[in-house]
Amino acid sequence: MGKMKGGAGLSYTSLTAQLRMLRAKPHSVRYTHDFSRPEYQSGDSLRSLAEKRGLYIGTIAQEDDTYKQYLPGQFDSLTCGNAMKWGWLSREGRLGEYDYARADAIVDYAVAQGCRMRGHTLVWGRNPPHSYPGEVDRILQASATPKEDLRSILRAHVTEVVGHFKGRVRQWDVVNEPFSVYDKRFADYTFYQVLGKEYIFNAFRYAKEADSSLSLVLNEQFFFYRDARAKAFLALVREMKERDIPLDTVGLQHHVMFVEQDIDDFRWFIGQLDALGLKFEITELDIRQKIFQKAPDMALAQAEAYYAILCECVNAPHCTGVTLWGTDDGNSWYDHMAPFAMRCFQPNAPLLFDAAGRKKPAYYAVQYALRQHREEIR
Ligand code: XIL
C-alpha cells in the first residue's frame, strides 16, 4: 500500500500533556558504569548472549532493508515496524483485500535466518487508515447494526491474517494500545465506541481460534508504571484472566521519550504481572538521548538507562524478550514524527548503533546486562 506515510496522526502531540511530561521529575540516573570503557565490552553478539539468558532479542523491519545488516548477526527476533498493520496490509485501503508482498518478504527472510517473527499488530484503533482501513468507519456509520458488523469485520480480519502467517509468526500483538495515551480511560477508538472493551476480548478469542499455538500479547505504552493508568491496565488484564481470555504475555512498548521511566515502579509493575501468571516482553524499546541533556555525557547516561531496563529483563524469569524499535539512529521513527522531528528535540539518537552503524555505549550496556547472571545483578 506504499503511499501511506502513517506517522502524521500519532497522538503524542497533545501540547498540555507533553508539557506535563517534560516537567515530570526526572528519575535520577546512577552513574556507576562507563560503558565506553573496554572492561564493559566484549566481542559477543547480543543474540548469543540473549540466547544463553533464555531471552529473545529483536529489532524491526522498516520500509528499507537496514534490518538485514543487523539480523541475524545481532538479533534473533524480528517485528515489522509497519508492514503488518491492518492499514498497510490492505490493498489500496480496501476492507477485505490484502496485499502481503512486503510482509511476506520480511517474514520469509526472518524465518530463513532462524529468527522468531513477531506479528504487529492485529487490532489497533489509533489513527486509521494507518492502523486499519478507513472503510471500516464508513461502513459502521452507515450501518443499522454496527455491533454485529464490527464483530464480523474484526473476526474476518483476525482470522484471515493469523491464518496467512500461521506457522511463521510465533507471537502476535493482538491488541495494541487499548488505553488513551495520557490518562486511565480506554482509548476512544471507533472499536471501543461501538463494542466497549468487548472488542479487546473478542480479538484474543479470534486469534486463539485461528492458531492455538500462538503467544498472544496485549501491547501498551507506559510513561509511568505505578500511576492510575498503569493500575487501570492491570485491572484490565486481571479481568481478562478472570474471564479466561487467552492472553499470555503483556507487551510493554517502553518508548522512553519524555522522562526516564522509574525502575522501581517498573519492577513493581512486572511483579503484578507475575502474580497474575502473565509473562511480559519489552516490545518497542528506545530511549531518546535528548532526555539526558543535563547529564555530563548524554550517550553514557542513555547507556545507563538501557542497562537498568535490561537488568530488569534478565532478572525476571517471566520476561520473554526485548525488541528495539529500530536498528540504528539513522532511521528512528522520532526523526519523522512531531514534535521530536523538530530541531529543539534533537538528538533523538535513541538506539544502540549510531547512524553509521557503529556500536554506541548503549550497545555495550545492553551487552553487559546480558552477560550477567541473574544472581550477579543485584
Ligand atoms: C510507528 C512506526 O515506527 C512509524 O514508522 C509509523 O509512521 C508510525 O508508527 N507504537 C506502536 C508502533 O505500536 O506501531 C508505532 O510505530 C510506534 C508507537
Weakly predicted, low-confidence segments: 1-9
Please give the alpha-carbon distance between the first and last residues: 48 Å
Morphology call? globular
Give Rg in angstroms: 20 Å
Mean pLDDT: 92
Order of helices and strands: HHEHEHHEHHEHHEHEEHEHEHH
What ligand molecules are bound, each kind once? Answer: (3S,4R)-3-hydroxy-2-oxopiperidin-4-yl beta-D-xylopyranoside
Pairing-aware structural class of the strands and helices?
alpha/beta
- The number of helical segments is 14
Structure description:
- It is a single chain.
- The chain has helices at 15-23, 46-53, 67-70, 86-89, 101-112, 135-142, 146-165, 190-195, 198-210, 228-242, 263-275, 298-315, 361-371, 374-377; strands at 56-61, 77-80, 116-123, 169-176, 215-220, 249-252, 255-256, 279-287, 319-324.
- It has 378 residues and is of the alpha/beta class.
- It has an 8-stranded parallel β-barrel, surrounded by 6 helices.
- Strand 1 (56-61), helix 3 (67-70) and strand 2 form a beta-alpha-beta unit.
- The structure holds (3S,4R)-3-hydroxy-2-oxopiperidin-4-yl beta-D-xylopyranoside.
- Residues 6-7, 10, 81-82, 176, 253, 284, 333 line the site of (3S,4R)-3-hydroxy-2-oxopiperidin-4-yl beta-D-xylopyranoside.
